Amino acid sequence: MKRISLTQHLVEEQRQHNKVPSELRLLLEIVGRACKTISHAVGKGALGEVLGSAGSENVQGEVQKKLDILSNEILLEANEWGGHLAAMASEEMESIHPIPNRYPMGEYLLLFDPLDGSSNIDVNVSIGTIFSVLKAPEGMVTPTEQDFLQPGAKQVAAGYAVYGPQTVLVLTTGNGVNCFTLDREMGAWVLTQRGIQIPVETKEYAINASNARHWYPPVTRYIDELQAGKDGARGVNFNMRWIASMVADVHRILNRGGIFMYPADKREPDKPGKLRLMYEANPMAFIVEQAGGAATNGKQRIMEIQPTALHQRVAVFLGSKNEVERVTSYHHDA
Ligand code: AHG
Ligand code: MN
Ligand code: MN
Q1: Fewer CB in 10 Å around end: N or C, the chain?
Q2: Among the atoms of ligand 1, which is closest to the Cα of residue 262?
C-alpha cells in the first residue's frame, strides 16, 4: 500500500482545492503533533502517572482530571510558537489565551476540547481531542473573546483524534472528511480513509437514557418509537450504543451510521444541553455535514447558531441525515 502522510495529503488538498494555505497546514500539522504527544501520555496510563483527578475544577464546575490539564498544556505549548495563530480557547480555560508577545501573531484562532470523554480516562475506554479552526476577523489587533464568537459555518478546519485501540485523526478542511491512523513505530499519521460518507439510513442510536425522565416531549416521542422497534411506528428494530466519549460515538457513526443525541432537558430549563457549542458541537457538526450527515440543536442547523459566549452549551442531534431530520421535525411539530 502506498502510504500518504498528513503533510502530503494537506499539500495535495491545497493543490486541488486551494483551501489549505501553508499557514493552515502548519497549524494542522502542529495540532496533529500535539495529539501524538497526548496519545503517548494516554497510552502510558498508570505507568505515566496520568490517571486520576487533578483536584481542581474548570469554569463549567467540572472536576478536572490530570489528563484534562496535561492535554491542555500540550496543545498550548505546541501551538504557541509557530506564528500561525492569534489566540487559542479551550474547555479547560475560562478566558482566551492570546499568543505571547515573544512570538509572531498569525491569522487563525484555534479552539479545543483537549480531552473529551474524561469519565472514561481511568477505565481505559476510548477518549479523544476535538478542535476547531477559525480565521481571525479582518483588522483584529488584539484578540478578544468576541473575535471567537463566529458561527460554525465560518470554520476553516475541524477535526478530532480518538485515543482507542488505534489512535486516529479525522480531519476536514471543507473538502470532505479523511481519516489518518497513527503509525506508532514511525510516529507518523498515515491516510487510511478518504472521503468518508455516513450511511443515510441507520438502525443505531446513542443517547444517555438515564436522563429519560427529564426529556422534553419531542425526544421522548422519537426514542419511544426507536425502542418500540418492529412492533412500533418505525417497523424495524434499533440498537443502542453509548460510549460517553462524544469522539468515540461520532467516530462509530462516521463509519457505520447512527444518530448521536445530547438534548436539553427539564433539569435545568435555562441550560441548552450539556455539550459546548464552540469546541465540541461546531467541529463535530462540520465533520458530520462534510460526511453527508446532518447536525441540529433540534430546531436549527448547529453551524448557523450565532455564539454569544465562549463556553455556551447547545443541544446536539447529529449523524445520519434521515434520523436527524426526523427528530428535528418532531421538535418543529411540538
Ligand atoms: P468532556 O469529557 O470533555 O467533559 O465531555 C464529555 C461529554 C461527551 O464526550 C459525552 O458524550 C458526554 O459528555 C457524556 O455525558 P454523560 O456523562 O451524561 O454520559
Ligand atoms: Mn468533551
Ligand atoms: Mn474535555
Answers
A1: N
A2: 11
Domain boundary residue among 193, 218, 244?
193
Tell me the residue range of the domain where 38 lies.
6-193
In angstroms, what is the span from residue 90 Cα to ligand 1's centroid? 15
Ligand 2 centroid–CA 273 distance in Å is 13
82 backbone dihedrals φ, ψ, rounded to 5°? -70, -20
Which of 159, 193, 227 is a domain's end point? 193
**Of 224, 203, 205, which Cα lies nearest the Cα of 213?**
224
DSSP 259: E
Report the atom number in ligand 1 closest to the C-alpha of 113. Answer: 3
Report CA(10)–ligand 1 centroid distance (Å). Answer: 31
Does any ligand 1 atom lie closer than 6 A to the CB of residue 319?
A: no
| Sign of the Cα pseudo-torsion (323, 267, 129, 249, in order) | negative
Closest-lying ligand to the alpha carbon of 316? 1
Please indicate, yes or no, if residue 70 is contained in any of the structural domains.
yes
Q: Are 182 and 3 in contact, with CB atoms under 8 Å apart?
A: no
Closest C-alpha residue for ligand 1 atom 3: 116
Mean pLDDT per 10-residue section of the chain, whose length is 334 residues: 94 94 97 98 93 88 91 97 97 97 96 97 97 96 96 98 98 98 97 96 96 98 98 97 98 98 94 96 99 98 98 98 98 95
**20 and 165 belong to one structural domain:** yes
Residue 1 lies in a domain: no
The total number of structural domains in the chain stands at 2
